[in-house]
Amino acid sequence: MEILKIDNVSLIYQTDEAETHALNDVNLSIEDGEFVAIIGPSGCGKTTILTLISGLMKPTSGAIYLDGKVIDKPVGDIGYMLQRDHLFPWRTILSNALLGPELQKKKTPETVAYVNELIEKYGLGEFKKAYPRQLSGGMRQRAALIRTLAYRPKILLLDEPFSALDYQTRLAVCDDVHRIIKSEKKTAVLVTHDISEAISLADRIVVLSARPATVKKIYEPGIEGTPLKRREDKSFSRWFDTIYKDIST
Amino acid sequence: MKKILTLREQYLLDKRKNKIKIIAIQLAVLILFFGLWELLAQTGAIDPFFTSSPSRMLKTLKTLAGQDLFKHIGTTLLECICGFIIATVAGTVIAILLWWSSTLRKVTEPYIVVLNSLPKIALGPVIIIWMGAGYGAIITMTVLICIIVTIMSVLAGFMECDEDKILLMRAMGANKFQILFKLLLPSSIPNLISVLKINVGLSWVGVIMGEYLVSSAGLGYLIIYGGQVFKLDLVMASTLILCLLAALMYFSVALVEKHVKKSR
Ligand SMILES: Nc1ncnc2c1ncn2[C@@H]1O[C@H](COP(=O)(O)OP(=O)(O)OP(=O)(O)O)[C@@H](O)[C@H]1O
Ligand SMILES: [Mg+2]
Fold this sequence. Notes:
The complex is a heterodimer of chains A (about 250) and B (about 260). Chain A is of the alpha/beta class and about 250 residues long. Chain A is built from 9 helices and 10 strands. In chain A, the strands form 2 sheets. In chain A, strands 6-7-8-3-9-10 form a 6-stranded mixed sheet, sandwiched between helices. In chain A, strands 2-1-4-5 form a 4-stranded antiparallel sheet, covered by helices on one side. In chain A, α5 (about 135-150) packs parallel to α6 (about 165-185) and α7 crosses α9. The longest helix of chain A is centred in the last third of the chain and has 17 residues, at about 165-185. Chain B folds into 2 domains: about 1-45; about 55-260, MetI-like fold (Orthogonal Bundle), CATH 1.10.3720. Chain B has 12 helices and no strands. The model of chain B has no long low-confidence stretch (mean pLDDT about 90). The complex binds adenosine-5'-triphosphate (ATP) and magnesium ion (MG). Adenosine-5'-triphosphate (ATP) binds near residues 20, 46, 47 and 193 of chain A. Magnesium ion binds near residues 46 and 159 of chain A.
């Protein structure tokens, strides 16, 4: 079932200095439960696509539909995860995770129980009462993911969520995030410029052209398993080469 | 037999020793200063009529304590604390309004810049005429001196807040009130505390300036009065009390800071 539809979306930024044509007729359809990676050259408009999906900005032309309804303002059914975790240092991990339900006035006993369960299930149980600074970078990113899951968003937007981590941690967190998103059966859109990250995480990979971005190619590598497993698959490097050529030409 | 210390114990011991040393030297400087002052005055090397001396200050304080010293202290302290609180609260509220409305912020910007560089004492006569020569004028002067700095620093703190954090909250469906109360204010607490510290200093400037202009009571009044009748003992003694009060207020804020830091 289609959950998200990006229909002929274009976007032009207006600033004092210039007009920037960021997106040009982008079309994309995303199925429920799918993990899609968007990849493209630096500055091509990847973040812009996520901002549009979140409803924080309106497309210059075209429209985006979530569950068949046009998105035109943020309504809180979208989970955002960024490069840095942005946990609030004055809140404990539990209270950080409850931020979303609190803002949406949905902090019911059952939501609290659900959030507690998520924290336990994904290995942060003993850090519930801890403050973010007491956690490692990888654990903080996991806590940030739990915070976005807490208000049960329909779709998760991940904007290079691993790029601030060191290589070892990045592989581990990649695995964590993949496992959590799959076991919660969430739809996810990941933006990255790391090709191997895209192949190891996504079911489908959307390659964008340089700015103004349009959808250039869509691949379905069909490799199964955890990100670490996929990196060992024999077709991995072939996919890498294909996508690399697409991006650099 | 001497106990052998571990590296850690040695480090802690050294650190404590060093701290004691600093405090001892600080005390010694203070004692030396007053001692020398007293000595020079006693031996006639300086004229206590112009410089006063610790013993004469003490005597003055004793007589004053029997009369109305505490009324003067109370007056000044009350004016100072009122001005401090009004300026901090009102300044913060105005900063919130300016953050809320970017139109308001842009419109008021040049006025705030001008008010900031204006020496507030120039408004003294106007304040006296409008507020009358009394507490009102003094507190107004104090508020004027503190409030502009408060507005500017609190607003700067708000504007510095991480854009991405705001974006995250908006994506979660937060409204402007929630962004203010759940993000901006809590993340501004260190900034608010440094504003408090600045205002402690500035509110004393305001109060004493105010009392120089108008007043029939207060430490500023005692200092001015003492100067006019050439009673240097009174001037020096009042200044000393002022020093103590200012220090006391500063340390109260420092205590608040310590408490807040601990609970975060
Ligand atoms: N708020 C804005 N105002 C004006 N121009 C913008 C704005 N945001 C982005 N742009 C411009 O639009 C283009 C696309 O930006 P975007 O951030 O979407 O790219 P990106 O693919 O996410 O880049 P990166 O790889 O650096 O993350 C860039 O040229 C950028 O300079
Ligand atoms: Mg980006």
